[in-house]
Design goal:
single chain, alpha/beta, Dihydrodipicolinate Reductase, domain 2, six-stranded parallel beta sheet, 13 helices
């Protein structure tokens, strides 16, 4: 089976979500030898890795609200035009841009990606795809409407490990899977959570446009408690440990088990406030049966919490980030990004006769998107896949904030049993930043 046949088959689609064929994607075929003109929205921090990942193409424009954070990339690409406001960049460079990287804090992902797609630009957006569930649904639908090539930045989805996990589970290596445990050590010391808004308002650094950094979020005075990177813990800007790592760690389960929308989500956590996420939480998702796959429970742990260590580990410790699949006939473990999958105990791994590799392999996460932009097959984590994955992940934060079990009506994007919980499905935007 070649890659196109796989992507168009039932095995290649997660749950009931459609992967759009390449012939309806893109604003015109580009020969593989012709370089794309790529603009980056966000040039410092994680954007540096994304820009490096597409360095084979033409980097024609760079945009960042903080000149100091962007200085390295501004110097590395002296011929790229420089901007602070992505809206101005997209308007001025519309005819010169084929594709856009969005590597901003979470709260700007949707606004930047949506504007680019409406202009017919291909989009690579960092994880989580969006800040809210509503935004994930809107971007998924927009990618289909505007026929652009998309990719979310959960790079493990292009790796070997996640493919082996799918192939082994579909081969019946551990039997039907009814339970999954996934965990991360974040936030840990990476950024603070469980804190309130600072009361002081120091002057804004001269290199930073604070108003543009806020983007769609409500106005508040500048404080270094919000940036860089530490924005992840603040509800107005980030999505906490779950949003940061869930699209990486839960990805193998979402693909291999074709999870789709959960029926219910419940959570327990340390103290929650309206400003930042809790120090740690345990979130339980319940999924109905899917085709020949039985109902499944997925439990998420963060803040250093972990599941009970399986006896099958034979004295070894659990890693800081990982997943345990519990099947009727055994267990499978992997690290972050789906790396290093193993049946446990090791004797089962040694005895297992591995199936043929049926899932097409790709040359790299960024390269996979570049090839899609030029008329190739859909990228592996295109928005048809990444959108539902992001929705599923972010529903955990809704359960954390509500503090009660929620029932989710996936097709209608609605919390069915607690009407007031729907305020966390869709947020309000500052004027001028609407989707």
């Amino acid at each position: 089976m070649n890659r196109r046949q796989f992507l168009l088959s039932g095995a290649g689609a997660a749950a009931a979500f459609t992967i759009v064929p390449r012939h309806v994607l893109g604003q015109g075929y580009k020969p593989p030898s012709e370089k794309l003109n790529i603009a980056a929205i966000g040039a410092g921090g994680r954007a540096e890795g994304d820009i490096a990942g597409v360095a084979s193409e033409n980097i024609t424009a760079l945009c960042d609200v903080d000149d100091a954070r962007a200085a390295k990339m501004f110097q590395r690409y002296p011929n790229a035009k420089k901007y602070r406001d992505f809206r101005v960049m997209l308007e001025k460079e519309e005819k010169n841009i084929d594709a856009v990287i969005v590597a901003t804090p979470d709260h700007v992902h949707a606004a930047a990606s949506m504007m680019a797609m409406k202009m017919g630009k291909h989009v690579y957006c960092e994880k989580p795809m969006t800040h809210s569930i509503y935004e994930a649904r809107m971007l998924t639908e927009a990618a289909r409407k505007y026929k652009v090539a998309t990719q979310m930045g959960n790079q493990g989805h292009s790796g070997e490990g996640i493919r082996l996990i799918c192939e082994w589970i579909w081969d019946g290596a551990i039997g039907p899977v009814r339970e999954v445990h996934a965990w991360t050590n974040r936030p840990g010391t990476y950024w603070p959570q469980g804190i309130d808004r600072p009361k002081d308002s120091p002057p804004v650094p001269g290199t930073l446009d604070w108003n543009l950094w806020l983007g769609p979020s409500p106005e508040r005075p500048y404080n270094p408690a919000y940036l860089p990177f530490v924005w992840r813990g603040w509800w107005d800007f980030g999505t906490g440990a779950l949003g940061d790592m869930g699209c990486h760690i839960v990805d193998p389960a979402f693909w291999a088990l074709k999870l789709g929308y959960p029926a219910s989500i419940s959570a327990v956590s340390t103290k929650v406030n309206n400003e930042t996420g809790p120090l740690s939480s345990i979130i339980e998702y319940e999924f109905p049966a899917r085709g020949d796959m039985p109902p499944c429970r997925l439990v998420w742990y963060d803040g250093g919490l972990k599941p009970t260590k399986p006896d099958e580990l034979e004295g070894r410790s659990l890693e800081d980030n990982g997943v345990i699949f519990v099947g009727d006939k055994g267990k499978l473990m992997c690290g972050c990004y789906g790396e290093r999958p193993r049946l446990i105990p090791e004797s089962k791994m040694q005895a297992y006769k591995r199936p043929e590799k049926t899932i097409p392999r790709v040359s790299g996460h960024h390269q996979d998107w570049i090839e899609a932009c030029k008329g190739g097959d859909p990228a592996t984590s295109n928005f048809d896949y990444a959108g539902p994955l992001t929705e599923m992940v972010l529903l955990g934060n809704v359960a954390v904030r509500v503090g009660r079990k929620i029932l989710y009506d996936g097709p209608n994007m609605k919390i069915a049993n607690i009407p007031e919980a729907n305020q966390y499905i869709r947020r309000e935007y500052r004027p001028g930043w609407e989707l």
